[in-house]
Write a structure and sequence with these properties.
19% of the residues are buried. Helices cover 76% and strands 0% of the residues. It has five helices and no strands. It has one domain. Helix 1 packs antiparallel against helix 2, helix 2 packs across helix 3 and helix 2 packs across helix 5. With 229 residues, it is mainly alpha-helical.
Length: 229
Amino acid sequence: MSTEDGGMSHEHGGVPASVRAQLLATEHWGLLASRSTAQGEVLTRISMFLTFTSASIVSVALVGQATGFSDTFVLLAVVVLVIDMAIGLLTQIRVMNVAHEDLMYVTAMNRLRAAYVDLDPGVAPYLMSAHHDDEAGSVQTYYFFGNRGSFSHVAGSSMIFMTTANAALIAIVAGLLATLAGAGTAGGFLAGALCGVAFLSVSAVHGYRSYRNVWLGFKPLSPTPPAGD
């Protein structure tokens, strides 16, 4: 049963509004716990990647000193860097998955806030997080003071951090392989730079498209009203 202003009544199907509020709060806390767990897990994965990469590079340097930077050292360096690169790519995939999961949790909690507002419209002015489960609502929840912080949030995100780290590793591996193939120092530097920039560009385009596809296939229940309404 709906009220005259379009909101839900204080009772629905014979269930008191207080019970509905408790059910919504329980779901809200579950989403918060899942979001916190996902964020903690991905930060641990990034720390593991950085620790493994740092340790492997130090190990390669020690082997290089012990072997006089022989051909065996070069082969070992390539193998270790390729392993680091593979682990970095797997970590980047997980970071992207968690970014989508985080957006999912934020959107779900925005929808729950819409239900809170339906139960008590008077709470709406006190909610800084959005109570609309669309793209505009997610942007407001991520940054309460408008969308001016969107670029800095993206640039400083874990996704960009991992993409940059992997681009550096790919550039090093590509430059090293080009040098071994006889391209010389300048050729190796150029090959590494091109591969690194190409990886950054492809990752950026892929990330943007995956983000847009989320909203293209999503139908909000409480979309943000047009400006001026």
